[in-house]
Specification:
Helices cover 38% and strands 24% of the residues. It is of the alpha+beta class. The chain folds into three domains: 3-82, Rossmann fold, CATH 3.40.50; 92-109 and 183-309, D-amino Acid Aminotransferase, Chain A, domain 1, CATH 3.30.470; 113-181, Dna Ligase, domain 1. The protein is globular and about 60 Å long. α1 (15-31) crosses α12 (300-309). It has helices at 15-31, 45-52, 70-78, 87-94, 96-106, 118-124, 130-137, 163-171, 217-221, 236-253, 288-295, 300-309; strands at residues 3-8, 35-40, 56-59, 113-117, 141-145, 155-157, 176-181, 185-195, 198-201, 205-209, 226-229, 258-266, 272-278. The structure holds adenosine-5'-diphosphate and magnesium ion (MG). Magnesium ion binds at residues 262, 275-276.
């Protein structure tokens, strides 16, 4: 038995999801016989950790602070071992621009993109380069903030007229945005779980939007608006390729413990493209990684035990 602090909530836009993930993790840890302390992460985080002195921390924070390496850095400073990826993997994965550059350099397929920070528009006239970008990427173009998650701030620009508003929306979430080639096709998620020091992939989940033309934030969390199919109905060769690419992305960024890799399978030629790697994927009742684990015969409690057991591997 260990004393486990579950870090949840926080100030990210995904606070509500994190509170649900955290509560579910706490219940599982209690069933596993641990002494559990739930911490809603705020300005008193360091004081709480110093006072509670947990043996380990379970990071159930999504998005800002919890997924970008900030909380991991504090835990390092305080000498408290924690679940999941370390500081450098979190920093690289949370920044889609950094992650995509790393993937492209490594030869891992990711949709073509161009990325700019605010100052490029304000001080260097980057807006004048938009027509060149638009002709290279072709419409529709996906405009997204470098950070965040849960499809927040992501817009599909169908024509050049949509681009300015899409950029403004993305810049309201981050100072860096990317314009990315739209990949028409199927939305796949490959969950990765450490297994005795080695990472393995779990059955693939396909997210099938029921109404929207795009898998958006609302659809994702409202039960019934997105249908999840697990294991996804895929050609065996395609599934094997998706799993291999996802594992390669996980290793490339230096992830640990668990992660979820989001990919697109292009409709016509079955090409696969990695969109992003989530270092603290959702752990709620409707989240994809727990569903994938379930399909592999791993119960939620077993999943949490595995993630906890992978610390320090
Ligand atoms: N380049 C793209 N082509 C097609 N769909 C995309 C593209 N980028 C994002 N999407 C859609 O938006 C969703 C969220 O994008 P993603 O890059 O995973 O960001 P988030 O961090 O918000 O999850 C994807 O699951 C997919 O449905
Ligand atoms: Mg995603």
């Amino acid at each position: 038995m260990s004393r486990v602090a579950v870090l949840k909530g926080g100030r990210s836009l995904e606070r509500q999801v994190s509170l649900r993930s955290g509560a579910r993790v706490q219940d599982a840890l209690e069933r596993l016989g641990h002494d559990v302390i739930g911490i809603d992460v705020g300005t008193d985080l360091v004081d709480r950790l110093a006072a509670d002195r947990p043996d380990v921390a379970f990071v159930a924070l999504h998005g800002r602070d919890g997924e970008d390496g900030t909380v991991q850095e504090l835990l390092e400073v305080m000498g408290i071992p924690y679940t999941g990826s370390g500081v450098s993997a979190c920093i690289r994965a949370a920044d889609k621009v950094l992650a995509k550059h790393a993937m492209r350099d490594q030869g891992i397929p990711t949709p073509d993109f161009y990325a700019f920070n605010e100052t490029a528009f304000q001080a260097l006239g980057a807006a004048q380069a938009l027509p060149a970008i638009e002709s290279r990427l072709e419409f529709p173009i996906v405009v997204k903030p470098a950070g965040q998650g849960s499809a927040l701030g992501i817009k599909f620009a169908r024509t050049a007229a949509d681009v300015p508003a899409a950029l403004v929306a993305a810049f309201s979430y981050d100072r860096k945005v990317l314009l990315e080639r739209h990949v028409p096709g199927r939305d796949l998620a490959v969950s990765i779980l450490a297994d005795g020091g080695r990472a393995t992939s779990l059955p693939i989940v396909e997210a099938v939007p029921q109404q929207e033309d795009f898998y958006d934030f609302e659809a994702r969390y409202e039960i019934g608006r997105t249908k999840f199919v697990c294991p996804a109905q895929l050609d065996q060769a395609v599934a094997a390729r998706a799993s291999a690419i996802a594992l390669e992305s996980y290793e490339l960024l230096g992830c640990a413990g668990f992660a979820r890799v989001d990919l697109m399978l292009e409709r016509d030629d079955e090409a696969l493209f990695v969109l992003e790697v989530n270092t603290v994927p959702g752990l709620t009742e409707t989240s994809l990684l727990p569903q994938a684990a379930e399909a592999a015969g791993i119960s939620f409690d077993q999943l949490i035990a595995r993630i906890l057991g992978a610390i320090g591997d």
